[in-house]
Amino acid sequence: MTAITESAPAIVVPPLAKSPGYWAGVFRRFKKDKVAVGAGLVVLAIILMAIFADYIAPADPTRSSMLRRLRPIGTPGYPLGADELGRDMLSRLIHGARLSLFMGVVPVFIAFVFGSVIGVAAGFFGGKFNTITMRTVDVFYAFPSVLLAIALSGALGAGITNSLLSLTIVFIPPIARIAESVTTQVRGMDYVEAARASGANALTIIRVHVLGNVLGPIFVYATSLISVSMILASGLSFLGLGTKPPTPEWGLMLNTLRTAIYVQPWVAALPGAAIFITSISFNLLSDGLRSAMDVKG
Amino acid sequence: MALEPHPDRGGPGTPLLQAKTLTKHFPLGGGAVVRAVDGVDFAVMKGETLGVVGESGCGKSTTARVVMQLIPQDKGEMLFDGEIVGGKDLTLKEYRRQAQMVFQDSYASLNPRLTIEDSIAFGPTVHGVSKANAILKARDLLQRVGLDPARFAARYPHELSGGQRQRVNIARALALGPRLVILDEAVSALDKSVEAQVLNLLADLREEFGLTYIFISHDLNVVRFISDRVMVMYLGEVVEIGAVEELYNDPRHPYTKALLSAMPSMDPDNRTMEAPLTGDPPNPINPPEGCRFHPRCPHAQTICSKAKPALVVTASEDGTRRAACHMEIPGSGHSRAPSLEVAA
Amino acid sequence: MTPLVAIDNLTVRFRGAQTVHAVNGVSLTLEPGKVLGILGESGSGKSVTLKTLLRLLPESRTDIGGSVRVDGRDVLALNPQDLSDYRGAVTSMIFQDPALALDPVYTVGEQIAEAIVRHEKLSQKAAMARALELLELVRIPSPARRLKAYPHEMSGGMRQRAMIALALAARPKLLLADEPTTALDATVQIQILLLLRQLQRDLNMGMLFVTHDIGVAVEVSDRLAVMYAGQIVETGTVRELIRDPRHPYTKGLLAANLHGARKGERLEAIPGAPPALTEPPNACSFAPRCKFVQERCRAALPPAVQLGEGRVVRCVLAEEALTAAA
Questions:
Q1: Cβ atoms B150, B199 nearer than 8 A
Q2: Which residue of B has its CA nearest to C237?
Q3: Neighbors of chain A with 3 or more C-beta pairs under 8 Å
């Protein structure tokens, strides 16, 4: 066999015409999906709105006015009306996006990291380790997520940090389950066998051959949990276990406006609509990502 | 650094691989056991191609995986060039540089997220070759398996046809500079016209790199074309082994005979008129007592259900031909067995 | 005699992200009680042609052109009611994977009886009795017991026999076989081939047998049609095609079958791979892989050269041979 000439460290590998590659293909397929692109744009708009809330919002979201309580949509100076304390609804919704998005994304992201580690390890090593890990995860999984979130939050006490923590704990089991099942699938593929046959150790195989193929699907699943997390966070705030007034947060706004449902039903429904639009956009986005990431498209 | 070529330690007389009573059972629930591989003995000489044939459930693929040490054997051992595989002279990692495998499913055996050259370069980097060197080597190998590196190296598996992917898998197997390559139904999924190209390639590479092949296939025509010797398996056991033309022209075991006469005739004036066997190959769970083939064998007698026939040397000049059938064992008690006096 | 099957200039195109021209002008006929083997590799359009005969292709994204007549019926024009009467009773199909044809939640007997009752006015009991006869016909051992078995309780060869019994339930005149023995072991494959040959003869059915394996095609067929890139490139009797193949592709396939090939010989492999079929062919589709390619092969579709009764070759070489002989 002709050995490669030993020309010391200065080996230059000539670059080749790159194939468009996997992600380019994903992007190409994603672009064709009008619904997913639309949802992505909505999500992007909400994120930008949250970031630049200070510049966009027409008024101070906490400035109340006893004279302008519960104004209808379209009141001059209050394009989306005013809440039960006479605060500008539009400004509150814009500022509320910050906490709501934060409570939607952060717990899911942390759970994504921990859940993936647990699930990939259990899926790859299998055997007794898998059984013990996954049965433990199942214990948490057995509780309905709302109940678990409320129970944990109640035990830990009210506050943003605690609801963040409880939401994270709620999302680790489902993510770990998905991670375990896709990893088990990938582990059985011939290319993983071939990698073992080349003498690679477990960590190298996980790094090179497993992670690249499982993180995508796990990530897509996690994206779909963002909406659940937002709704749960809103629920916790609604129950008084999350954000404290007067901080604007959609769930909390929904809670405090519920008494106004007969007086200004449209205004009272606005925070709900914001939650709905955001969560459905995240869901449609993750659906689109999932089909775009399917290679055989 | 590049990988050092492997020295021939044992000399030409030592088999490259010797499997001794390899056994692999898979327990099922409820006490049932799949006896996938049950005491298999064989040797592969240096530079030869050993064909392995048999029907589903005969254990040929499990044998391949045990030989590759992807699954550990329950019993038995393997000697590679005279050294115990996994022993102190030949660690598993070292063995894996010298023995490689090509799988049937060309798509499933390539990581969809890696470019072709990265897939080929992976093995050498595991063994300490620098990434740059490994990539150069990968491109060289692509050239040798008939794929222009400028066009293919940076592509992904789904952009290639089945035949091209299988060439990549062959290049990947060769990247570590192995001496033994196990081909597990490596051409079975390809279209016939593409299969012929890959078979030519395998023959060329064997010549060029001095390889030894274990070639597993259900296609008897292909096995006849590529093999020097053939091993026939049935229900986890070797029933016959010998030089390819001898075995095809004069099969000694009734199962080998049946397998060969089940091949389509390719002659419209002499079509097959009668199936050599009835029923399906039985399940390797609870195989029959005695000779495992006896329930389907047209020549079965009392002895066949009672005693397991040993794999004995049978009609051949050089003594390399073996069959496990009571009709071949002098004095076995089968009416067609040669008498003891003649043998003595 | 009117042919049982008459396909004339059939084209099938799948619409989608990329249009696929799967079948590009296929014409063939089958006489009643005869077997035509359709030989081709993956993507040659052989299975698509077969599925068109039962209108099994997804209609919303398939464009079908040409005409398909079976037993006097214009298959492409059948209304839903006539189509469901036609399926099973006139034309029936067996598949490579019995899992596609057999329902895992019903016993084999129930499924066969259901197929009988759908086409004939019979009591459940009479249908079951006929199902038993059918299992005997396909030579399933202890048929009375197997009648009550679920598909997963049977071995591969047995399931294939059960699927054949199911396909024969409504006494079809035409049996379509789509690689029915490809997934089977060698010793089982030959049993199923012999069974199909005998049933076809005893019941005087016409059969279209699609396969990629020349050896299998030779075992069952009277005549052969070789398909490449959605076209039939050569037809003739089995003898003619095996003994005297004319199209370079047929020759290549025969060599690649390795029948009788010896170790050390170099195989006459066809280089390259089949075309992608994203465009309708306007030249010989095999030209890029052909050893004997000429200028005009790349310029226009090759002529369909008639060498004799039912012997057609689509190749300029056949034309040259014909003019040289004349």
A1: no
A2: B268
A3: B
Could you tell me which of B234, B132, B145, B127 has the C-alpha nearest to residue B181? B145
Is residue B292 within 8 A of residue B235, CB to CB? The reply is: yes
Residue C5 has φ and ψ, to the nearest 5°, of: -125, 130
The model's pLDDT over B28-77, given as tens digits with 9 standing for 90+, comes to 877 788 999 999 999 999 999 999 999 988 999 999 999 999 999 999 99
Residue C35 falls inside a structural domain: no
Q: CA–CA separation, A247 vs A251, rounded Å?
A: 11
Its CATH class, for the domain covering A78-292, is: mainly alpha
Interface check for C16 against chain B (CB to CB < 8 A): the answer is no
Distance from the Cα of B151 to chain C's closest Cα (Å) equals 15
Given CB atoms, is C248 within the 8 Å cutoff of chain B? no
Q: Is residue C128 part of a domain?
A: yes
Is residue C142 assigned to a domain? yes
Domains of chain B from N-terminus onward = 17-233 (3.40.50.300), 288-344 (no CATH)
> Could you tell me the two tokens for C263?
């170790």
The pairing of strands C20-30 and C5-14 is antiparallel
Residues on chain B touching C158 (C-beta within 8 angstroms): 280
Residues with Cβ within 8 Å of B334's Cβ and at least 6 positions away in sequence, in order, are B299, B301, B303, B304, B326, B327
Give residue limits of the domains in chain A. Answer: 78-292
Which range marks the domain in which residue C118 is found?
91-171
Question: The pTM is what?
Answer: 0.86
In chain B, residues with a C-beta closer than 8 Å to the C-beta of C251 are: none
Distance between CA atoms of residues B93 and A200, nearest Å: 8
- ipTM comes to 0.86
